[in-house]
Amino acid sequence: MAEKESAINLALQFAVDQLEKLVDRQLDDALKQVGQSPDDKRMHVELSKCGSVQLQFSANRLNYSIPLEIRLTYDAGLTKLRGNGKVELDFETTYTIDEAWRLKTLTDLLTHRWIEEPIMKLIGLDLPISAIADYAIKGAEATVERTINKLADEQLELHTRLLQAWLKLQEPIVLNHVTRPVILLQAQHLGISQLVEKDRRLSAQFTLRGQPELHLGKAGVVGQKTPLPGFAFLRETAGLSIISMQSALPYTHAQHLARHFLLGKTLPVGEGRSLMIEQLDITQRNGRLHLRATTQGSFTGTIYVSGIPHHDAATDQLMLQQLNIDLKTDNLLHKTAAWALSGWLKKKIQSLVNEQFHQALAQLRQDLEKLLNDMSFLEVFSLRAEIKRLKLTNIQLKEE
Questions:
Q1: Is the separation of the CB atoms in 278 and 295 below 8 Å?
Q2: Whose CA is closest to 83, among 41, 45, 40, 55?
Q3: Run of H or E residues at 18
Q4: Over the stretch 273-309, which tens digit does the pLDDT of each residue have?
Q5: What are the strands of the beta sheet with 317-328, ordered from one edge?
Q6: What pLDDT, on a 0 to 100 scale, did the predictor assign at position 400?
Q7: Tens digit of each residue's pLDDT (9 = 90 or more) over 177-207
């Protein structure tokens, strides 16, 4: 059966409020470093925010205003002149992502508005010093630019963290379930949509494309490692992921599972009657699944079951087609009841197979969804995954 490429869509969301707090913290530390003017050693500037940063996103642009309080000290020789003022600076940062998934930023000061123009006191006179304060504005501009660049390079570290996530996604995903499932995502391509802001939340969609594999009851599964693909914007996004997985269940493990669910279990076979399975073996011959069970109870003997596993895509039911049941017993009374028991067993086996199949798929879906949601990605990002449905599309018997 030819392998189908799967599209796994991961919704990436983060709150604008969290990003604003992160920028605020970075600016608080950076503004403390603005001090003595390199052009005039007699001038000293102190800057501090007098309000929070407000961010606005549009396409690949980030606009924000920063309210600052300026404290100037000028050494005039016999005296020191001091002055305070408040200004609001409007910035625009454009960002791009290069081929290696490295985030590049370019920050420009668009304009500034004096909230309180600086005044210096000299022998009782109030002297406006907006010209002198231009240095403070230039210092603030340079500081903001360095802070945003540092935030992109050192805090977000898009390339480094995305590479870590990519490598993690290529590791075998071992889920805690009786079927001992191991999933290999086998991701080969990666793309991202444009950032969109809605209700103070930024969201984007990552799409992984590959050929996932599901291994059941098989230890030591190792996937093929592929390098992080180059950056690519998604031309269009899809709401749902479509995952087509090639899977394999060794007969040795199928026998282990059957024994786990059936061995030692007491099964009702009508009013006041029951049987207990003491021994169970599973084999495969000529495309048919063969089961041999030794029982005690209302029927003491050996039950032989054979059939062809088939999945009905329309009803999402797993069944054994061409089901044959043969009962062997030395008990004469049980021989007379064998015909009636055979009909009951056909219904019971079909029901049990389908019930365990759906339980296993439901648990697999929950475990995989939890694993994706537990993945961490950047300080301000949260990864949200919801698997709507996990469905089997085809089943085949193969040799070990």
A1: yes
A2: 45
A3: helix 16-31
A4: 788 888 888 888 877 888 888 888 877 888 888 888 8
A5: 266-268, 274-285, 288-297, 301-312, 317-328
A6: 55
A7: 666 778 888 888 888 888 888 888 888 888 8
By the 8 A CB rule, do 95 and 105 touch? yes
Structure confidence at residue 28 as a pLDDT band (50, 70, 90) = confident
| Segment holding 56, helix H or strand E | strand 54-58
Residue 353: closest CA among 266, 261, 269:
261
Query: Encoding tokens for residue 269?
Result: 């076979």
Distances (CA, A) of 37 to 34, 40, 398: 8, 5, 78
- Closest by alpha carbon to 209, among 227, 188, 239? 188
Classify residue 157 by its DSSP letter: -
CA distance 306 to 284: 9
Helices 332-373 and 251-262, interaxial angle, to 10°? 110
Q: Which residue has tokens 């026998």? A: 255
SS3 state at 249: coil
